[in-house]
Amino acid sequence: MRPPPAAPLRVRGVTCTPVEVPLRYVLGTSAATVRAAPLLLVDLLTEEGITGRSYVFAYRRSAAKAIALLLQDAVELVAGDAVAPLEIAAKLQRRFALLGVTGAARMALSALDMALWDALALAAGSPLCCLLGGRPRPVRAYNSCGLGLMSPPAASDEAQALLEGGLQAVKLRLGHPTLAEDLAVTRAVRSRLPDQVALLVDYNQALSRADALARGRALQSEGVAWLEEPIRHDDLDGNAEIARTLDLPLQLGENFDGPKDLLRALQAGACDLAMPDVARIGGVSGWLHAAGIAQAHGIPISSHLMPEVSAHLLAATPTADWLEYVDWTDAIAAEPVKIVDGCWPIPPGPGVGLAWDAEKVERCRIP
């Protein structure tokens, strides 16, 4: 292992590369149909020659470019500073306060924070999870590729295909025009899956309170393991009513803006489970705060996207639940990660383990 440097690492600059990667499985949700994923790849340069890496799912091509501009601005503000993620996060929180640390600004600062932590772990010669108090171990994952809004036969066929690598859970998107259609596709998928495989369902905030209660009640007897975002994520009163009324566990979190949103949701009783997005919760630093809040409330915590980083975080999270697995970076990774026995295998090498294939990246670059 590489020994830590004699002096602290210092921030030198950043390179941002927006790309759009094709999806192997089209993802049709109640919000949109996604055939390609815009990503922003981040290389944080240090004066000592160590490069920390991260990336975020930007949702739109335009957002990838906007996040890059904000990230470059943020790095200019901390150029020459020691690579101390918590100090830098606090400094940038103040400097971006008038703009508002949310949306694209939050994602830019989260991407920087992830890259800072990667640089520290690389300098220490340690996997990131070890730096956070965990250890490299297999992290159980569910397949979140595909299974969008489709016919029952197509969904059941795709669900079976998604069990590759021994995965023991899949996510099904719901939100068809009628409850009968939702039930038909849920039953078709459930009947095709082995009994031990968990079926998770996600409405992507498509329903009204009344409809969510009606559909949630109907799904409770269909072998479903959780109900995700049936209504607006920020309707805490409505989500609390759903959580109180249904026996089916309610999952929220991918849209939480920083740890404060998780705290508010748990104080309101708005969810039974939580799944922060590392790019929206505040990067590694924000996740650590969120994990402490979840532990204090006894809430299982899962991840949302970015499995390369999220696996390290879950490996150091006391109430870790599921890793959301997507294969989106396979199109640009130097060595795509393969699921083994239903788990994401955290590599034993230093840092997060992100490495891009330059030729693949160039083919996917957003002009």
Describe the fold and architecture.
- The chain has 367 residues and is α/β, with parallel strands linked by helices.
- A 5-stranded parallel sheet has the order 5-6-7-8-9, with helices on one face.
- Strand 5, helix 6 and strand 6 form a beta-alpha-beta unit.
- Helix 3 packs across helix 11, helix 6 runs parallel beside helix 7 and helix 7 packs parallel to helix 8.
- The two termini are 38 Å apart.
- The N terminus is likely disordered.
Give the end-to-end Cα distance, rounded to a whole number of Å: 38 Å
Helix content: 25-40%
Pattern of helices and strands:
EEEHHHHEHEHEHEHEHEHHHEEH
Trace the largest sheet across and list its strands: 5-6-7-8-9
Determine Rg (CA atoms, Å): 20 Å
Q: State the total count of DSSP E strands.
A: 11
Number of H- or I-type helical stretches? 13
Q: Major sheet: size, sense and barrel closure?
A: 5 strands, parallel
Briefly note the structural class of the backbone.
alpha/beta
Can you lay out the helices and strands and say which pair or pack?
Blueprint: E1 11-28, E2 33-46, E3 51-57, H1 61-78, H2 85-95, H3 103-124, H4 128-131, E4 138-143, H5 152-161, E5 169-173, H6 179-192, E6 198-202, H7 209-219, E7 226-228, H8 236-245, E8 250-252, H9 259-267, E9 273-274, H10 278-281, H11 283-297, H12 307-315, E10 323-325, E11 343-345, H13 358-364
Helix pairs in contact: 1-3, 2-3, 3-11, 5-6, 6-7, 7-8, 9-11
